[in-house]
Amino acid sequence: MWPHPLRLLRDRRAGAGILVAAALPVVIGMAAFAVDLGAVQLDTRRLQGVADAAALAAASGDPTKAQVTAQAAVTAAGFPRSVTAQVIPGNYVQDASIAAASRFTPLSNGSGNAMRVVLQSTSPTFFARIFGKTNIVISRQATAAQQRYAAFSIGSRLASLNGGLLNSYLSALTGSNVSLSVMDYQSLVGADVDLLRFLPLLRTSAGLKALTFGDVLNSNVSTPQVLNAIASALSADGQPAAATAIKNLLNVSGGQSLTLSALIDAGPFATQSEGGTGLAKVNALAMATAVLQLASQQRQVALDLGASVPGLASTKVFLAVGQRQAQSPWITITAAGTPILHTAQTRLFVQAQLAPTLISGLGGLVSINLPLFVELAGAEGRLNAINCAGGTTPSTTLDARTDAVRAAIGNINTSALNDFSTPINPTETTLVHALLVDVVGSSNISTGASEPWQQLTFGLPAIQAGQSQTISQTVPVNGLATSLVQQANLAVVLAGLRVPVSPLLQPVTSALQLVSPALDTLLMTVTGTLGVGIGQADLRVTGMRCGAAVLVG
After folding, report:
1. pLDDT recorded at residue 85
2. Tens digit of each residue's pLDDT (9 = 90 or more) over 265-299
């Protein structure tokens, strides 16, 4: 017989078995959670290792084969279950000011420096199978970036070498008498300064306590200290003639102070104190001139060239160089499109007087005055891409665009040249002045400021050879003086009345056309001395590095 129900309720025997039976689902669930969670975590960690290896492989090889490379790395890792891999090309920026999750930007064209690999697989369960869960989907990702950077400069133009003009210009900058020989200048034109060799030498020359390249660039130093370090760097690189020429400037350079960060951006090397030689180089003459320009308190100089220009009885040149734009150095080491390099805004005014010539109707030899005004807004350049792809020739691509050019025949107030915040508007000028007859004229050329970006690609052989490339405006401005003369609006003023048609105009025009090619040469030489070009921009990639890929955040 069955026991009475009340008796069963009062019976305490076999209570533990009932409790165990009741708790068994919970115990199994906890075991499933502990054992299966541990197994999933172990598989996830193993999958992360596979993702890391796949990302490094994809970032190190040919970007066009990144998917295949990553899949091969996954297969080689021997993960026990099927793994799907997705490769996302992009660009990674190592910038502490940017949130870690935002430093990677996907790119559809695969032109970036990084690869993100996303893996997905499954992890089998053990106890959870009781509840119908046979496996858990797991996913891991890793991002690897190739350490790549390039050094490039803008505006190191030396189209022609005129020792007399250079001596006059450097003398005006330093307030002393610079008299370097043509051989001195030729040795400087043919020499390069290794910037990452120069900076430690400057640290010693200036007695700086600065530790890193960035600290050195942000320190106040004097022109003699900078020039002495340049000479030492040239000597260390086996360029003694150029080093001697730089030392000849030490006695006349003065003691002005400057901060080189306005000229040089060390990029990823800013936190280093040594190393990197051979990457960033710049022409020795261009660097010496840029240093003296930066240190000079005279933003405007006047040069009297006398009768040194063929066909001219006298030539005076007024130069004004504006401050460089903020955060726009002259040379940079970078892995991205910043900073954008600019040449300095420049103004040039030439007062030329033609050699006396015979003009019928004026009774004897007369002089013709020709005032030329030229304004250059500043060309700019930026890094577009660094190609480190395997199987192809490494190369660096730059974007550049020329400056806006404005030129005129007319009179200006030379004291206003240095005020770049105020526009200059040349006025009609008197070209010929006689007793009762004057010839007046004006001419204007403006190319505007809407020049498009143009691409320049430098292959590794061109980089190693130190070759530069030039871009020109889409609207040619070659022969600026010639163009101004050809389109000049001339008129004869007779006893105070304008006579637009006169036999005097043709001989005056002919005389101007004869000397305009020489003036064009002068304009190109003068602007070249300043490191700029009329309607052109010169760019040079001095080095590029394609380092190993590293895992990033």
Report:
1. 94
2. 998 889 888 888 888 998 898 899 889 888 887 77
- Go through the chain and tell me how many residues it has: 553
Tokens coding 350: 């030439």
**Using alpha carbons only, what angle is made at residue 460 by residues 459 and 466, rounded to the nearest 5 degrees?**
95
CB 141 within 8 A of CB 158: no
C-alpha to C-alpha distance for 287 and 197, rounded to whole angstroms: 14
Q: What is the reported pLDDT for 163?
A: 65
Within 8 A by CB and 6+ apart from 104, the residues are 90, 91, 92, 114, 116, 143, 552
User: What's the pLDDT band for 391 if we cut at 50, 70, 90?
Assistant: low
Dihedral of the alpha carbons of 514, 312, 538, 162, in degrees to the nearest 10: 130
- pTM of the full structure: 0.76
DSSP string for residues in 136-149: EEEEEEEEEEEEEE
Q: Percentage of the chain surpassing pLDDT 90? A: 36
339 preceded by cis ω (within 30°)?
yes
| pLDDT > 70 fraction of the chain, expressed in percent and rounded | 88
* Residue 265: CA count within 13 A, CB half-sphere: 25
In sequence order, the 6+-apart residues with CB closer than 8 A to the CB of 407 are 372, 373, 374, 375, 444, 445, 446, 477, 480, 484
Burial bucket for residue 520 (CB in 10 Å: 0-12, 13-18, 19+): buried
| 59-86 mean pLDDT | 90
Three-state secondary structure readout of 89-106: EEEECCCCCCCHHHCEEE
Identify any residues that bridge with 145 across adjacent strands, giving them in sequence order: 114, 550
Of 486, 452, 474, 472, the residue nearest 524 (C-alpha): 472
What is the C-alpha to C-alpha distance for residues 347 and 27, in angstroms, rounded to an integer? 87
Q: How many CB atoms lie within 10 A of CB 143?
A: 22
- What's the 3-state SS for 289-349? HHHHHHHCCCCEEEEEEECCCCCEEEEEEEEEECCCCCCCCCEEEECCCCCCEECCCEEEE
Distance CA 330, CA 22 (A): 80
Rg (CA), the chain: 36
pLDDT confidence of residue 245: 93
**DSSP label at residue 112:** S
